[in-house]
Amino acid sequence: MSNAVIRTDLPELTLLHRGKVRDMYEIPGHEDKLLMIATDRISAYDVVMDDPIIDKGKVLTQISLFWFDLLANIVPNHQISADVDQYPEVCHQYRGQLEGRSMLVRRTKVMPIECIVRGYISGSFWSAYKKNTTVCGFALPEGMQESDKFPQPLFTPSTKAEQGLHDENISVAQMEEIIGKDVADKMADISIRLYEKASEYARSKGIIIADTKFELGMVDGELILIDEVLTPDSSRFWPMDEYKPGQGQPSFDKQFLRDYLSSLDWGKQPPPPPLPAEITEKTAARYKEAQERLTL
């Protein structure tokens, strides 16, 4: 079994940002590029756990690379290379931390909006619907059950929160106020097209993509797809053969971990509780199964 990479240490590079899962570095002499590394950290309820999920970062990176390739005809993406040999030479000494879990990417102006597309009603959207059938500006049909399919996919943007805070769902009208109608329309159109193509492919592999989150950046006036794409961290993946509307669904994401944490007397604030080996191993297995189903 591989050793976990929990926190990268690349002293000759400049750490730009350490997120819940990814570490982002600037490379001296290559200001138009960034090095993005997916660690084995896992977060739940916006709290990063102390215990890693072995090889999770590799799984996320390989899934993203697969989707970048499949979806390239819809929108360009930021990936330059995932081959350490093709990275600037200063990176080669860190091969052990980079192999299989990193990407050299184009530097972009990151758009301040999370592009969420929902094909099924679940999670926070289901919670909101139970209180009011108009959610995020969408008048939804009466009488929907949990996990029901929407008549058509919904684009539901959110603002990007500072680390440790929750993203905030906003209406498309609010998004237009932030970035302008033309760019908002393009982002919505790209997101829906990405979701529809990915969903059709995933169904052929026995997986329902209930919802997902895309990130877009701008380079030379052009929108491009950035960050991770359609991974178990950014999406709800459900096994099609077990799908039953009217209840929550088994999934290939961290819902297994969330369910365990919900069974504890824990206030969903740091510090996180320790995770038993059984929980980390079963979570790792769910991530790996998603990768194998989608990409093999």
UniProtKB/TrEMBL annotation:
It catalyses: 5-amino-1-(5-phospho-D-ribosyl)imidazole-4-carboxylate + L-aspartate + ATP = (2S)-2-[5-amino-1-(5-phospho-beta-D-ribosyl)imidazole-4-carboxamido]succinate + ADP + phosphate + 2 H(+). GO terms for cellular component: cytoplasm. GO terms for molecular function: ATP binding; phosphoribosylaminoimidazolesuccinocarboxamide synthase activity. Residues 16-268 form the SAICAR synthetase/ADE2 N-terminal domain. Pathway: Purine metabolism; IMP biosynthesis via de novo pathway; 5-amino-1-(5-phospho-D-ribosyl)imidazole-4-carboxamide from 5-amino-1-(5-phospho-D-ribosyl)imidazole-4-carboxylate: step 1/2. Its EC number is 6.3.2.6. GO terms for biological process: 'de novo' IMP biosynthetic process. The keyword ATP-binding applies. Keywords: ATP-binding, Ligase, Nucleotide-binding, Purine biosynthesis. InterPro entries: SAICAR_synt/ADE2_N (IPR028923), SAICAR_synth (IPR001636). Belongs to the SAICAR synthetase family. This is Phosphoribosylaminoimidazole-succinocarboxamide synthase. It comes from Candidatus Electrothrix aarhusensis.
